[in-house]
């Protein structure tokens, strides 16, 4: 019988919970602001972890890049906190990556909403004529 979840997935979920908690409570840099940790991908040997994040309230790419740089510089500190929190043989090195899927999703949703409202307006104009 195959396992339902891989160990890398379980470790990734535990890392996600731990990292998001430590970013919220331990990192006090105002350049970061509010951070959503969307996903954590761990390599099979648990040496590296890619942490996908989005920044709430950051509009420009420059602001996001600055916040991402701060997180990548604090990755050693966060790794130390995670190592104390989780019971892992090796704690992966953390690499933070900006995930723009939510931003793109919101932009696409607004475009779809605009197209639907324009289509409804066009059909109302045709029915009035």
Number of helices: 4
Shape: elongated
CATH-derived topology of the largest domain: GMP Synthetase, Chain A, domain 3
What string, H for helix and E for strand, traces the elements in order? HEEHHEH
Estimated share of beta-strand residues: 15-25%
Structural class by sheet pairing and helices: alpha+beta
Number of domains: 2
Q: Can you tell me the CATH superfamily of the largest domain? A: K homology (KH) domain
CATH architecture of the largest domain: 2-Layer Sandwich
- Ranges with pLDDT <50 over ≥5 residues? none
How helical, in percent, are the residues? 55-70%
Strands, count: 3
The first-level CATH class name of the largest domain: Alpha Beta
Span between termini = 66 Å
Q: What is the mean predicted local confidence, pLDDT?
A: 88
GO cellular component, one term: cytosol
GO biological process, one term: maturation of SSU-rRNA
Subcellular location: Cytoplasm
GO molecular function, one term: ribosomal small subunit binding
Please characterize this protein's 3D structure.
The chain is α+β, with helices and mostly antiparallel strands and 129 residues long. It has two domains: 7-98, 2-Layer Sandwich (GMP Synthetase, Chain A, domain 3); 101-129. It contains four helices and three strands. Strand 1 and strand 2 form a beta hairpin. Helix 1 crosses helix 3 (75-85). It is elongated and about 75 Å long. It starts with 6 loop residues before the first helix and ends with a helix. The mean pLDDT is 88.
């Amino acid at each position: 019988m195959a396992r339902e979840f891989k160990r890398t997935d379980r470790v990734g979920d535990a890392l996600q919970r731990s990292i998001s908690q430590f970013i919220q409570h331990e990192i006090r840099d105002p350049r970061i602001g509010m951070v959503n940790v969307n996903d954590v991908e761990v390599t099979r040997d648990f040496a590296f972890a890619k942490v996908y994040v989005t920044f709430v309230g950051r509009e420009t790419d420059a602001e996001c890049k600055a916040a991402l740089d701060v997180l990548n510089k604090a990755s050693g500190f966060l790794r130390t906190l995670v190592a104390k929190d989780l019971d892992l043989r090796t704690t992966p090195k953390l690499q933070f990556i900006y995930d723009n899927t939510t931003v793109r999703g919101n932009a696409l949703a607004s475009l779809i909403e605009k197209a639907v409202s324009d289509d409804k307006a066009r059909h109302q104009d045709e029915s009035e004529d």
